[in-house]
């Protein structure tokens, strides 16, 4: 991400210098093509690429589908732009088919780089928000249990056998719905103090951390998006929240959960199981990893800086997504996190 921003500023400076030369003397007007494209495809487009890759996955709580295309996009965009401007300039003084063909070639490279960006980003903006699923199988010999974030959230919150709260409870809640799938999580936290416990126990566990909850209040994440991201049953959670709002205390929501039946009773993930087991996977949320494995704080600080601990993104970002945003190899980061976790 940072490479796009740095390139953008360099192109902006070069474009300004060329523009100044054109203003000083008409003899530099032959650089007009370079001036325009350095500012358009260099400054503006590179800035959009860098900011887009950084911001859009956070706003939509959904990682890029093809993160490894980002470095390829970076090199193709720069190569295409520089090649276009170079051979357009040379073609002014040597009108040959070779120069014209090379110009077309680099123009195609530049266009292809734009295609990579559009395809990669459109997967973030469209479709359902994918819950991170990095499932590790259970080993019958060693009894190893995965704590992959997607598996944990699913096992923690999905009603067993697809059971829903009884119709009588749904009717009891009907007519006084105050929370909808499109309600912001931050709005729920602000309007109903204590609701973070209901949300956390339902599977959005990072909200049990007061600092995370305060940061989420500022985000535009809807309840639907949060449930899809964490693999939480949306209808069941809305019923729990409505029960909490009506009774004014978390115990009411707990009664709904017990009636509905959850995977806790079916041997799903539990706090004690997850906090003691491994390994850490790239699909786990950053905030959740810090919550269960506090000893990993030094590793995140090393790669992401101190700002990581105040960033609202750690509530919705996976380790892999954070690594991409900070130009860090996700595999190397996960290995180091697991090394620190095993050492305790």
Please supply descriptive tags for the structure shown above.
elongated; SP0561-like; 344 residues; single chain; mainly alpha
- How many DSSP helices? 17
Q: C-alpha Rg, in Å?
A: 25 Å
Overall mean confidence score, pLDDT: 75
Beta percentage is: under 5%
| Helix-strand pattern | HHHHHHHHHHHHHHHHH
What structural class do you assign from the helix and strand content? Answer: mainly alpha
Q: Based on the structure, what is the oligomeric state of the protein chains? A: single chain
User: Tell me, what's the shape?
Assistant: elongated
Largest sheet, in brief, is: none
- What are the segments in which pLDDT stays under 50 over at least 5 consecutive residues? 129-176, 249-253, 255-276
Q: Bin the helical content.
A: 55-70%
DSSP summary, beta strand count:
0
Report how far the terminal alpha carbons are from each other: 33 Å
Q: What number of domains?
A: 3
Note down, in words, how this protein is organized:
This protein has 344 residues and is mainly α. 63% of the residues lie in helices and 0% in strands. The chain folds into 3 domains: 2-125; 158-266, no CATH class; 279-343, SP0561-like (Orthogonal Bundle). Helix 2 runs antiparallel to helix 3. The model is unreliable at 129-176, 249-253 and 255-276 (pLDDT under 50).
In short:
The protein has helices at residues 2-24, 32-59, 69-93, 97-125, 149-157, 167-173, 185-191, 195-202, 210-216, 223-230, 234-247, 250-260, 271-276, 286-292, 297-304, 319-325, 330-343.
List the helices and strands and how they pair.
Layout: H1 2-24, H2 32-59, H3 69-93, H4 97-125, H5 149-157, H6 167-173, H7 185-191, H8 195-202, H9 210-216, H10 223-230, H11 234-247, H12 250-260, H13 271-276, H14 286-292, H15 297-304, H16 319-325, H17 330-343
């Amino acid at each position: 991400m940072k490479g796009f921003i740095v390139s953008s500023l360099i192109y902006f400076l070069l474009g300004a210098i060329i523009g100044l030369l054109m203003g000083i003397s008409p003899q530099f007007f032959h650089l007009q093509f370079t001036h325009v494209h350095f500012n358009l495809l260099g400054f503006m487009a590179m800035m959009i690429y860098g900011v887009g890759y950084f911001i859009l996955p956070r706003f939509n709580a959904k990682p890029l589908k093809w993160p490894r295309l980002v470095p390829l996009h970076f090199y193709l965009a720069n190569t295409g732009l520089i090649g276009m401007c170079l051979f357009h300039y040379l073609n002014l003084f040597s009108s040959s088919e070779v120069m014209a063909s090379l110009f077309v070639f680099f123009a195609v490279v530049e266009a292809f780089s734009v295609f990579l960006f559009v395809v990669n980003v459109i997967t973030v903006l469209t479709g359902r928000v994918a819950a991170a699923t990095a499932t590790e199988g259970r080993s019958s010999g060693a009894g190893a249990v995965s704590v992959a974030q997607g598996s944990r959230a699913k096992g923690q919150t999905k009603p067993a056998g697809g059971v829903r709260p009884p119709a009588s409870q749904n009717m009891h809640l009907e007519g006084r719905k105050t929370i909808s799938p499109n309600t912001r999580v931050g709005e729920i936290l602000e309007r109903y103090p204590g609701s973070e416990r209901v949300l956390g126990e339902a599977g959005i566990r990072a909200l049990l951390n007061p600092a995370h909850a305060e940061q989420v209040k500022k985000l535009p994440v809807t309840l639907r998006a949060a449930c899809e991201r964490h693999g939480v049953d949306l209808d069941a959670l809305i019923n729990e929240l409505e029960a909490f709002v009506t009774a004014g205390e978390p115990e009411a929501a707990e009664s709904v959960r017990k009636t509905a039946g959850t995977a806790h009773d079916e041997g799903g993930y539990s706090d004690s199981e997850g906090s003691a087991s491994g390994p850490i996977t790239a699909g786990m949320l950053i905030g959740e990893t810090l919550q269960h494995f506090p000893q990993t704080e030094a590793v995140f600080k090393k790669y992401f800086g101190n700002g990581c601990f105040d960033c609202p993104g750690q509530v919705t970002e996976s380790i892999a997504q954070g690594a991409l945003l900070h130009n860090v190899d996700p595999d190397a980061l996960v290995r180091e996190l697991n090394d620190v976790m095993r050492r305790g």
